Amino acid sequence: MTRESVKKQVESETEPSEEWSVELQALWCVKHDRWHDAHDLVQDLPTAMGSWIHAHLHLIEGDLGNAGYWYSRAGKPAGSRDRIDEEWDVIAAAALEQA
Known about the structure:
- With 99 residues, the chain is mainly alpha-helical.
- It contains 6 helices and no strands.
- It has helices spanning 3-12, 22-31, 35-42, 48-61, 64-74, 84-98.
- It starts with a helix and ends with a helix.
């Protein structure tokens, strides 16, 4: 699976693939404005990737304090609200490497 194939599925599918990792399913939900579904998927993931996606969600929400906490747990620098789409791409690439 490549980043481009994931992006195509994100754009064309009405639900995330059940074959995808929880992290990729959460990222699919992010792109479909299903913030709460994405949050439910990652809020209890005990991994750095789960924390990074969790941080990304709170950045989207505008809760920068909470986002900062989760970026810290992920070991990542805080993201920027004006680069949310670019960050999604970086997170998706990293999630694919783990899949």
